[in-house]
Every structure is written in structure tokens, then in C-alpha cells.
Amino acid sequence: MLTELKLTEVPDTGASILLDHAGAGVARTASGRFLRLQSPPPRLVGTLAGTDEGTTQSREHAADLSAELQAREAADAQIRWPARRRQVVLIGTGEVPDDVAAALQQWEVCVTRHRNADEFDAARDQGSDLVIAYAAVPADRDAWAGLDRLPKAGTAWLRAYREGEICFVDPVSVTEDDPTSEHVRRRRLAASLVPEELAAWQAAAPTSNAPLPVAARAWCVARILSVAAAWAQDTPEVERYRRTLWKLVPATGTKSEHPVIAYPTPYAPDARATRR
User: Fold this and answer.
1) Which sequence spans correspond to the domains of the chain?
2) Pick from 2, 27, 115, 197: most CB atoms within 10 A?
3) pTM
4) HSE-up of residue 254 (Cα within 13 Å, Cβ side)
5) Does residue 85 register a pLDDT over 70?
């Protein structure tokens, strides 16, 4: 058992080491793994902490230890969010997209911000792996139907929005066969007991809202990040996220999931043909 422990951080990593008075010790990685140190030299703790110039041996050991732990953290980062999927566009303004952007940037994701869909279209961003859009009011979603084309070009498409304090996160669209924003809109109207009133409220909703309650914002951001990370890691769970609408009602603190299935565009007969 380790006694009289000496603890110090390993520079430029999220790791730390523990040494006992006899020189035995372990390194705790940023992911919580404990690695047994092999013959750590005297004065290693002081060398790592910068309080002791150390010896040639302790300095070399400290450098090797730091390099090994940095390599492990780089490998962990590849698992968390693979480099091949780190080009992400974030559309929308407010606290929710700000929090999402901050989290993604901490995960070493390259985030490009746009205020709205029109600005995104004008910028003609090419090569994005994922586009995430957030709408604070229903009117902000008017241009989303035009972005439903993104999966056909190989870009995943994730949407989140609020109606009053109620929050929604749509299914993530990975291929052109996945539910679109229009599919979700129609699904919600079809499932509503008052579809006309719902559509009327969405059309007349105020153009600004008070900030979301802290808990609601945290839940909404967490759902967006959960779906985005599942897509980035290509986990089995992403299949469920591709078919599920998530809803949060802060007034009751309840969360629910609703299946959404894509369907072919309804046939619209030519007006001239119907008059014949």
C-alpha cells in the first residue's frame, strides 16, 4: 500500500503521479487509468513540479513520462471525436449554441459559426462533416427545409429548437433516407390533438424569448452533444438517434422520445392536369 504519498501533476497533460517514500508509484491518466511506474528515479516529483532542477536521469524520465501520457491522451481524443469528422458548422445564436460550441472546441473540434441558414448558404461552406442548427423561435426554422439536402452530399444534419420553454432535438439525418426537418414538422402536426392551433401558434410565435431555465438549457445541450458524439464515434446508439425526436418540457421536468420515420414526398398532381 502506498504511504506518505507525494502527488504532482504531469506538465502538459491531464495526468498526475503518486509516489511513496520508497519510490514506488503510479500515474493516473486523464481517463482515470492507473499505470504502474517502472523504477522512477529519485527527485522525479520535484522535476515534474518544477521545484527541483533534478538530475539528468529524472529529467529524461519526466520527459519520457510526459510524452507517453500525451500520446495516450491523443489516442483518447481520437476515440472521443475522430479527426476525420471534426469539421462542424453551428448555425444559430444564443446560450444553447454558445454552450455547444464551447464544448466542441474543448473536444478539439473545428467549429464554424453562422447566425442563420441564409448566412450559411451565402458562405458556401464546403466539406463540413456535420451541421448543427439551433432555432430560438419557429421563424428561425423556415429555411431549414433547404438544408435537408445536406445528407445527400455526405454531411450529417442535426437540428434543435425551442417553442417557448419546450425544447426539441430532431433525429440526426445521416443519409438522404433519414427523416428531414419537414418530416418532423408533419409528424408533430399529425400527432397533435390540435394540429391547426399548433400550426397557428408556430406561425404567430414571438420573435424573441427570455433565456431558457438553466436546467432546460443544460438538458438540451447535453442531448445535442450526446447525439453529435454518437454520430462522430459511429456508435450503435446513433441508429436510434436517426429515428427519434426528443422533447423536453421544463414546466414538468419531463423528457420523452418519439419515433419519426422518413417517407417519400407526397405526390402533388399538376394543377393543369386536374382541370382536364
Assistant:
1) 6-80, 83-259
2) 27
3) 0.87
4) 4
5) yes
